[in-house]
Amino acid sequence: MRWCAILLPAMLYAAVAAAEVPVPSPPRGDGAQCVEPTEVMRRDHMKFLMHQRDETMHRGIRTTKHSLVECLSCHTRKDDEGRFVSINAPGEFCQECHAYSGVTMDCFGCHATTPRQPTSRSAQSLGRLLSDTSFRLHIQP
Amino acid sequence: MPATKRGTQINENRRRWLGGAGAAATVLTLAPGVRLLDLALARSEEEPVSERVRWGMLVDSTKCAQGCTDCVDACSDEHGLTGMGRPQTDAQYIRKLDLKDKTTGKAYSLPLMCQHCETPPCVDVCPTGASFRRADGIVLVDKHICIGCRYCMMACPYKARSFVHEDLTSQVPETPRGKGTVESCNFCVHRVDRDREPACVEACAQAGHNALVFGDLNDADGALARKLEELPSRQIREDLGLNTGVRYHGV
Amino acid sequence: MEHDTAMTSVRYQTLDGQSVGYWALLALLALLVAVGYAAAHYMEVQGHHVTGMTNQIVWGTPHVFAVFLIVAASGILNVASLSSVFGKYDYKPLARLSALLSMSLLVGGLIVLVLDLGRPDRLIVAMTYYNFKSIFAWNIFLYIGFLLVVAVYLWMMFEPRMNRYSKPAGFTAFIWRFVLTTGTGSIFGFLVARQAYDAAIMAPLFIIMSLSFGTAIFLLVLLASFDWSGRPVGDDILRRLKNLLGIFVAAVLYMTMVYHLTNLYATEHHAVERFLLVDGGVYTLVFWLLQILAGGVVPLVLLFAPQFGQSRASLVTAAVLVIVGGLAQIYVIIIGAQAFPLMMFPGMEVSSTFYDGVVNEYAPSVPEILLGLGGIALSLLVAVVAMRVLPFLPERAGKPTPVSAAEPTPAEAAG
C-alpha cells in the first residue's frame, strides 16, 4: 500500500511530464516502407545493425537491407543549398529519438553522417556515384 | 526543420542509374572482359568471403614514376583522408617511398602500404582481436572493438598503420574511421567485395603507369599470378617470413 | 633461532592520521591525482594530437610511467617473499607493507595505461573480447590475477586464523609476479618489427629491473612512513635492504650490458646500437647520464663505498637515483627504440612523407607527464589511506639495538 502511495503520484507526474515533452517525430524516410515494419525497426534496429556490422566487417557480406549506409541514403535530408544534413544532427532522423530516449549513439564517431556530399565537378560526381554503395556493380554470371 | 527538404534527388538519380546505366557502370569499373575474380570464384552477395581467394598486389617499381602521387591522392579521396595539416599525426594508408642505393646511387620509387601478411604481427599482438585477417587475406581493423592501445603499430614492420589523433567529421560512408582507433590500408575492401580494384590501382592505371597489379594470388590463370610468373619479385622484410600479400618487382 | 619469537611479538597499528602532516600529504597526493585525471580527460577529449605522441612514436611518456609502476609493483613484493618464501623472518614485519605497495603501484600503473588508450571508454571491450595470442591479453589476466593473489595473501597475513596459510599464499604470489614481469618484458621482447626489441633477454631484464626499482621504492616508503609516524627503523634491516638494493642495481647493469653485447654480436644490429649508445642525441645522453651513471654507478658507490656506507642520507639518495635511473631506462627502451627508423630496405637511403628513414622526433607533453605523475600519486595515495584504515605498519622495523647485520645470503639476492 505504501508503495502505491509513492508510485501513484510518481506515475501521475510522469504522465504530466510526458505530456509536456513533445513525442519525437523523426522525419519520414524516402519511399513507402522501410526494410522492416516500423514497429520492428523501432524496437530492433540496433540488433539488425549489430548483426550486419559483423557480417560485413568479418565475412564481407554487403547485402544492403540492414546496412547503415542504406539508412543514410533514405533518411538524410538536404538543406536549402542541396547539401546533406547529418543524420545525427538535432531533429534529424537518428538524433530525434535518441535525444528523447537519452541513449547515446557510438556510431557516428567513425561512421559518416551523410551520403557522399555532391560536388560541383561532374566527373568527380560520376566517380562518386559509381562508388556509392547503392549501386550493385557485381554482375552475376 | 523548415530549412531542410527531403533529399530525394539522389534517390531519383539512383533509380535512373539502376534502370538505365547499370551495364555502362559495370563496363567503366574494369576494362571489358577483365574481372577481378574468375567466374567460378565469384560469390553472391549473401556468400561470405572464403580462403579460396587470397587478394594480393604486385608493385612494379620500374614503372612507378618518381614524384607521382596519383595512388596516394586516389586513396585519400576514396577513404576521405582529408588530414589536419599535421603530418606527424595525419593518417596515411599509402605513401610513396624514394629509395637510393647507397652503393650504386640508383634511385627507386615505390608505394608502401599494409602488406596484408599471411601471418600478420599486428593480428598476433592485438589484445581484443580487433586487428584481424579476413578469410581472403585482407588484414583489417574492426574499429568497433579497437581500444586504441597501438600495440599493432609497435608490431608492424612496415609502419603501415595510423592512429586517429582527433575527432573527425570528414568520413565517407565506405570507410568509417574515428578518434582513438587504429587504421590502415584495407585494399579498398568495399570495392573488392563488389568486384572492383582498389582506388590506388585504378588511379595508377589511369595515369598510364600500370605499376600496380591487383588480383587473386591463388588464381594461377589470373592477371596477378601471370605477372608474378613473368617478373621476379620480392617481399619487404622477407626475413620475417610473413608471406606478404604485396610483392615488389625491380627493387 | 630467535625469529619465531620475533614473529609472534610483532604488533601492527594503523597510522594515527590526525597530524597536519598526514592531511597535507593526503591533500598533495589527491591534488596530483586530480590534475593527472584532468590531463587524461583533456587528452581523451582533444585526441592524442595534443600529446607528443605521433604515428611514429606511438607509445610515449604515459607508457614509461605505467611500465615503471607495473614493473616496480612486482619487485616491491620481494620484501614479503623474503620471509614467506626464503624464510628470512627479519623481513616478516614488513610483509604487509610490501604487499600493500605492490597492489597500489600496480593499480596506479594500470590506470595510467588505461587512461592513455585511444578509447578508454571501451575498457569493457578489453575485458570481454580476447585474442589469446596477444601478450597484452595475457597481461590483463596476469595483472588482475596478481591483485587477487596478493589480496588473498594480505588476508592470510591479517587474519590470525589464516596465518598458517600465509606461506603458501606468499609462494603463489612469488611465482605469479615472476610470470607477470616475464609478460611485461615480453611485450617488447616478442616484437620482431623493431631493431631494439625482438630479444628474449627482455623478460629476465625486466625481472631484475623490477627487483631493483621495487626495493628502491620500498626503502623510501619505509623510511618516510616510519620516520613520519615515529616508528623506529633498525639499522640492521636497513643494511640488509641496502645490500639487496646494491646487488639488484649491479644485476641491472650487468643485464643491460648483456643485452647490448648480444645486439652488438650481430652486425645487422650495429646501426641501432650505434644510435642508442653513441649518436642517438637525447637517448644516448639519457642512457649514459641518467640510466647508467645516475641510476647505476653512483648508487653503487653510495651504497657500498665505506665513506657513505652507514649514512641514511646516502641510502635515500641512492634509492631516489635508482628510481630516476629506472624511469630513464624505460624511457630509452620504449621511446628510444621507436625513435630509430624501421629497417625495411638495408643498404638504401629511404625518404617519404611518413618519416621513413629518419630518426623520429618526440618531446613529452605536459599532459602526458601530469598523467604519469598522477599515476605515481595515486599509488601512494592508495597506500597512505590504506595505512590509516588497516594495521599495515609494525611498531618497529628491525632490531632495537644496532647489531652486526649479516650480509645477504644468496637466497636473499635471488629473491
How does this model look, in words?
The complex is a heterotrimer of chains A (141), B (251) and C (415). Chain A is an all-alpha fold and 141 residues long. Among the domains of chain A are: 36-75, no CATH class; 78-109, no CATH class. Chain A has helices at 2-20, 38-59, 68-75, 93-101, 122-131, and one strand spanning 77-78. The longest helix of chain A is centred in the middle third of the chain and has 22 residues, at 38-59. Chain A is globular. Chain B is α+β, with helices and mostly antiparallel strands. Chain B has a single domain (54-249), classed as Alpha-Beta Plaits, CATH 3.30.70.20. Chain B is 24% helix and 17% strand. Chain B is built from 7 helices and 10 strands. In chain B, strand 5 (131-133) and strand 6 (139-141) form a beta hairpin. Mean pLDDT of chain B is 88; it is low at 1-29. With 415 residues, chain C is mainly alpha-helical. A two-stranded antiparallel sheet of chain C has the order 1-3. The longest helix of chain C is centred in the middle third of the chain and has 31 residues, at 235-265. The radius of gyration of chain C is 22 Å and the shape is globular. Chain C has 15 helices and 3 strands. Chain C has one domain (12-396): Formate dehydrogenase/DMSO reductase fold (Up-down Bundle), CATH 1.20.1630.10. Strand 1 (77-78) of chain A pairs antiparallel with strand 1 (5-6) of chain B, so a sheet runs across the interface.
Descriptive labels:
heterotrimer, A: 141 residues, mainly alpha, 5 helices, globular, disordered C terminus, B: 251 residues, Alpha-Beta Plaits, 3-stranded mixed β-sheet, 24% helix, 17% strand
Number of discrete helical segments of chain A: 5
Protein structure class of chain C? mainly alpha
| Spatial gap, N to C terminus of chain A | 71 Å
Contiguous low-pLDDT stretches of chain A (5 residues minimum) are 120-141
Uncertain runs of chain C: 1-7, 402-407
Tell me the major beta sheet of chain A: none
Q: What does the average pLDDT of chain C come to?
A: 92
Number of strands of chain A: 1
**Oligomeric assembly:** heterotrimer
Q: Within the CATH hierarchy, at the fold level, what is the topology of chain C?
A: Formate dehydrogenase/DMSO reductase fold
- Shape, per Cα inertia axes of chain A: globular
Estimated share of beta-strand residues of chain A:
under 5%
**Can you give the helix content of chain A as a percent range?**
40-55%
Largest interface chains and counts = B-C, 57 and 48 residues
